[in-house]
Amino acid sequence: MKIYGMVDLQRKLSKLSREVPEIAKNEIEATGRLIEAEAKSNAPVDTGSLRQSGYYESINGGFGAKVTFSVAYAPFIEFGTGGSVMIPDGWGDLAEQFKGKGIRQINLPARPFLIPAYAKESKALIGRLNKHLAKLT
Asked: What's the superkingdom here (predicted)?
């Protein structure tokens, strides 16, 4: 039995193994930076400290991105406080670590800035990666 097209298949697979990791890293970095910029734009401004505290960081050898807002009150702006807490589906574990002790209850409404940016840009990332894969195959 003879299998035709194996050389061509091996060539395409070799090309994919070289190009896909670099494309993925570039798209992940671009997405991380877009999330940072959009979250800063979405963030409410009082003194400007919240916006200024945001930064992007490449992780996992470029195959991951981390966007952090370092001011201590950032999660309380994102999720709200007291009876006004709003935790989107899938974010409970993250929000739980910022739960207060119930000593003081200040009902600040949630003003999400980071999660909406993440939701929008992570969806766009999947679309861009699919377009790249379609071009390569």
From this structure: Bacteria
